[in-house]
Structure prediction request, 326 residues.
Amino acid sequence: MSATTPAVSLPVDDQTKRRLDRGGKSEASTMAGRTKKRLSSRGATLGALVIAVLWTLPTLGLFISSFRPAGLVNTTGWWTIVQNPGFTFDNYVEVLGTGNSQLDLAGAFINSLAITIPATVFPLVIATLAAYAFAWIPFKGKNWLFIGVFALQIVPIQMALIPLLSLFSRGLNIGGVQIFDSLGSAGGYGQVWIAHTIFALPLAIFLLHAFVSEIPGEVIEAARVDGASHGQLFFRIVLPLSMPAIASFAIFQFIWVWNDLLVGLVFADGAAAPMTKLLAEIVGQRGQDWYLLTAGAFISILVPLVVFFSLQRYFVRGLLAGSTKG
Prediction:
């Protein structure tokens, strides 16, 4: 029979025990615990509730006013809904048929979709490819080029509107070679797609590069040893791992383009105008029809709400990416 040696417990002081306990936990879990403790404190919860109430109260008033008759909206406040009850869908019916000789709000809603979806997809595709190149493809002048892209974020959009509009009207000719012909005057989808893509690329490349560069180098090197090309690395490794960051920026870009007035006013006028332009016009020259904005505002936020809630899980992952790293 073999003898069993009993386990011997060595005396350990409290300081060593605490050090061993901390060593058994990963640094990431420790950081996550501290972050969770701060965000779940009573003060943070109370502050979040106060901010939520203050942020939601005007929206609630806007929602109530959108279903009140024009006479009550112009004479009483929304908070008097109990003393002055009234409910109607006339505001929504009227605002959908309101517009100009070329377009009504229902058509502008379709225009906003036609503008926003491509203007979100195009910069994301280009920025994801550029972020991968800056992070994992060595080439001469990469750092200086990335600094130049980063610096473009400080250029105000207003400074680029007139030169860009002039470029679209004249076309681009380099060294006698016509790169593209004139896109005509403002009023088409192509111009506003290009404008939104150009304005979104610097920030998109910077944010996605920060995420893509955090992918462990061991994973990339292991795939290269197995013979993976850059295309396989991008589509099979980088793209799936970067989906939370891509979805997060997609939400920001979609909402920004959907709510944009300035770029749409310059590059998508006329029959291609988005909702924001018509909402600014339906109030009348002296603002006498401002009550229609209450219904128009909720029609305009319908699509962004659907996009946000459908991509919410990716949005949260993208915001928390890297928050638990030391």
User: Anything to note?
Assistant: The mean pLDDT is 78. The beta strands are 172-174, 177-180. The radius of gyration is 27 Å.
